[in-house]
Design a protein that fits this description.
By secondary structure, the protein is mainly β. About 0% of the residues lie in helices and about 40% in strands. The chain is globular, with a radius of gyration of 18 Å.
C-alpha cells in the first residue's frame, strides 16, 4: 500500500511502498526510486546508511539508495558526443565535471509507482528530449523484488532516438551497529580497475589490481587510510548475472551479483564529518558507509576502448542486480 512519507528537497510529495518476505523488508520511495530502508530478520539495525526522511536527501546523501543517471558516475567536463553531435551538461562539481547527470539526474525526480505488491514494486519515470541535456524521449523502469533474503533490482530503459544510458543503484551499506565500516571485510571479483586522476576521472585502460591498494580479490578489512572511489572492471560488456562482490560486517553479510561490466566502489573516505540526519542515528562521517554501484564503465563516451553505453531506438537497456543478505 502506498503511503506519504514526506517532502522532497525540491518540495514534491514523496510516497513509499514496503516489500516483505519472511526474511527481508524493503522500503522504496518515489523520490529517485530510492531503496530507503532494508531490514534483515534477526538483525536489529538497518543495513543501509540512509536518510531519515526525504527532505534529508541532500548533499552527500542525495544519492543514498537512489537510482542515478541516465549517465551515472563522472563525465569529463560534462561533455560527450552522441550520433555525431556534441552535448555538454552543466557541471555540478567544483572541478567542472559532471557526476550522476548533475541537477537533472534522475535521483532528483519523482518516479511513478505503477505496481505495488507484497513482494515487488515497479516504478517508472518519463524523460522528455533535452530535459537533462540528453537526446531522446525516454522511459525508465525500476523493478524491485524480494524473495527470501534476496532483493533483486531490474533497471530498464528505452529511447525514441539514439542516446546514452548507464544507470546505477547507489546504496551505502553499513552492516554493523555503529557509524564505522573499518570492521567490515570486502571482496571484489575483479582483476582490473580503472585508475583515476585527481578529479576522479578514469585516466585510461584498466590496470591490474595485483600488488596495489585496489586488490580485494581475497576478502580483507576496510581499515587503514586507503582511499577508494574507483570502478572495478568485471567484464567488457553486459553479461549474465555473475558474482561481483561480498561485504561482511559484524551483524550481516552481503553477496552482490550483477549483469553489469563495472562496479564503482566508494569506501566513504570523503564523506563529511557532519551531514544530514540518517535513519539509524549513526554518527555520519568518513567511512560510515560503503557504496557498491553496479554500472557501465565511467566516462565511457569519452573512451572509445570502453564498453559502449550507446542506446539505439530499437534496443532495450537492461541491467539486473541481486543483493543476498544473511546474518553474520
Amino acid at each position: 500500500m502506498m503511503r506519504f512519507v514526506g517532502v522532497a528537497p525540491r518540495g514534491e510529495d514523496v510516497h513509499a511502498v514496503t516489500l516483505r518476505s519472511d526474511d527481508l523488508s524493503a522500503e522504496i520511495w518515489t523520490l529517485g526510486a530510492t531503496l530507503a530502508d532494508l531490514r534483515l530478520e534477526g538483525v536489529d539495525s538497518p543495513l543501509l546508511l540512509a536518510p531519515a526522511a526525504p527532505s534529508e536527501m541532500v548533499g552527500p546523501l542525495q544519492y543514498a539508495g537512489a537510482v542515478v543517471g541516465p549517465v551515472a558516475n563522472r563525465l569529463r567536463d560534462g561533455s560527450l558526443w552522441i550520433d555525431g553531435e556534441r552535448y555538454k551538461l552543466p557541471p555540478n562539481e567544483p572541478t567542472g565535471h559532471v557526476v550522476h547527470c548533475g541537477e537533472a539526474g534522475v535521483h532528483h525526480s519523482i518516479w511513478k509507482i505503477v505496481h505495488a505488491g507484497p513482494t515487488d514494486a515497479v516504478l517508472t519515470l518519463d524523460l522528455s528530449a533535452g530535459e537533462d541535456g540528453l537526446p531522446g524521449t525516454r522511459r525508465l523502469e525500476a523493478h524491485y523484488q524480494i524473495s527470501g533474503a534476496t532483493l533483486e533490482l531490474t533497471l530498464t530503459g528505452k529511447s525514441d532516438v539514439q542516446t546514452v544510458m548507464n544507470l546505477a543503484h547507489h546504496p551505502y551499506w553499513n552492516l554493523g551497529s555503529n557509524g564505522d565500516t573499518a570492521d567490515h571485510e570486502l571482496q571484489i571479483f575483479a582483476d582490473h580497475v580503472l585508475e583515476t586522476d585527481k578529479d576522479l576521472i578514469p585516466m585510461g585502460l584498466p590496470q591490474p589490481v595485483e600488488d596495489t591498494k585496489f586488490d580485494f580479490r581475497t576478502a580483507h578489512a576496510l581499515d587503514g587510510d586507503v582511499e577508494i572511489d574507483n570502478s572495478y572492471c568485471l567484464a567488457t560488456a553486459s553479461r549474465p548475472m555473475a558474482l561481483a562482490a561480498r561485504l561482511a560486517g559484524p551483524l550481516a553479510k552481503l553477496t552482490l551479483e550483477t549483469t553489469e561490466p563495472g562496479l564503482q566502489v566508494f569506501n566513504g573516505y570523503s564523506l563529511p564529518i557532519t551531514g544530514p540526519r540518517v535513519l539509524n542515528d549513526f554518527e555520519f562521517g568518513p567511512r560510515s558507509g560503503v557504496a557498491l554501484e553496479p554500472q557501465g564503465w565511467p566516462d565511457a563516451p569519452n573512451h572509445p576502448d570502453y564498453p559502449s553505453i550507446t542506446l539505439c531506438p530499437e534496443e532495450v537497456y537492461c541491467q539486473r542486480t541481486r543483493y543476498h543478505l544473511q546474518i553474520a
